[in-house]
Prior knowledge:
Helix content is 43%, strand content 14%. By secondary structure, it is an alpha+beta fold. Helix 6 crosses helix 7 and helix 25 (562-570) runs antiparallel to helix 27 (582-593).
Amino acid sequence: MCGIAGIAGLGAVNTDAVQAMTDLMVHRGPDGQGLWSAADQECCFGHRRLAILDLSERGAQPMTSADGGLCITYNGELYNYRELRDRLKSQGSVFQSDSDTEVVLEAYRVWGEACLADFNGMFAFAIHDAARNVVFCARDRFGEKPLLFVSNSRMFAFASEYKALFALEGVEPDIDEARLLDFLDNPAHGIDHQRETVFKGISQVAPGEYLLLDLKDLSWRTSVYWSAEAGMAAKTTLTEAASHLRHLLRDSVALRLRSDVPVGSCLSGGLDSGSIAMLARDILGPENPYHVFTGRFPGSSNDEGAWATRIAGAADLTGHETVPTAAAFFEDIEDFIWLNELPVDSASQYAQWCVFRLAVGSGVTVLLDGQGGDEILAGYEQYFASYLDTRRRQGANIDGEEQAIRARYPQALAVTDQQWKHKLPWTLRLALARATNRGSDMAFGVAPGLAEKLVSGRTDIERPGDLHAVLRRDTKGFLSTLLRYGDRNSMAHSREVRLPFCDHRIAEFIATLPAEYLMGAAETKRLLREAMRGILPEPVRVRWNKQGFLPPQADWMRHGLLGAATELFDDPGFADRGIWHAPWWRRALQRVRGGEDSLATNVWKPFIDEMWRRHFVDRARSQPRLPPLRDGVA
Length: 634
């Protein structure tokens, strides 16, 4: 797990600029650094190392092939590197290290771009291929690791983080306001899975893609090498499917336990992280200590401490707890925002930040986490609308199921039930909201022209569609955003997070199963619950409510953050940006003070947006810049 950067140019690259890029990512790799330049000086790679596999200097990067024809800078982990190394050895390959980096490099040398099909891991890398005069860049299937780039007629630069690109002359943090507002309005849309980013001029390699850069003229093209499309329907019973999922998940956990430094788990107390912790304990055996890290919110209905303790006790895990607070968040806000780089949609991302920081004190460098289980295995109760729609189209009688769903999950179909509200003309909805000081649509607090564009662009209020289609959409979209949070929050503390549910074999298998295996019997993640029978403590396995990992955000807004939010909404500069309708947010904040907890989520949006502009965008604009090429031309 590391930070990578590089520049290719039509002319000699300024190596000081690449060094500056990697210096801004020291948190991603405190264990070492390196620079490499091509023989013609027109390409330079940089690297910051967090040593996880082969801690010796043999694993240092950038790494060159034995013949010098290839060089790689690589961020991530290839979990099946041992199996691939054995395959390559059988074909005559010779290895100088025990690192997965060398396996990636050699796999490309032997198999070319096709090597990606055999990779099970999270990664973003660039390989300079002197013989082909190209740079081959790739990003993992789900987008766990970032790969950002800028390109013009004379220069192509890439990096793991935006701030590294802003170290270059000519790269400015100019915001795509419409894209940003769309994300703030609905984080499920995501801003991390498309080519475009929030910053104009900065692009990204999308999840499941590779990019080929022609060094002759700096032209580039991308190709999709994987997508979680619907598979051929599997002929299997529910019991057989659950057994196969248990096998896949156990193997995924086992692969992700491979490490030359200590490994532990994030543990929320829920089904996903609990399953991973229990499987890890079974794989490691009782003689090996296993540390788990939990965020607590004492006194809040969101506190999962008791559930985490139950799991830790059942598996003899060594538990550690942290209690995020509003005061601590405001104390950390500058670093938190600078290292997260983009706005976060709730205070839960700060809670995640605190969990990774907790692991530092225990000496655990790698943490397994349950991210991805909800999107891949149908863990959100709002998916029931899509499930019922799917079953109806199949001709099934679902009256009984719908009643059972409404009984167990009273809010599951609320969005579908209230779609009529969104069909009212926007001008009427806005007038009613302003006149009555009611309503919670974020668009009510957006400047008029932007609000109309935002509302007209909404597409998710129609019929929910096929369940598998919705899961693919969220696996590609919203999950990509959650993975960005995990990447930035873990790397902020030089920790590596590994996600067993983000194993492509699991996603491909789930895509072949009937909808009733995933959400039948009024159960979210039905298949996972069946797979974990006899492994998870039974009260956890049949815990039907989905408990979000969320601090008491309304309470934070009423107390610890009230002064800061009040000052922000009263600041003339807030209104002068032309993004937000300040009077609406002043009234909304008063409503939260008066007890409207549900509105706190929306009040967070302009608050964190303004904090981000101050602590990331303004800081990025003020940092020193260097020309990417030696001739000083950007």
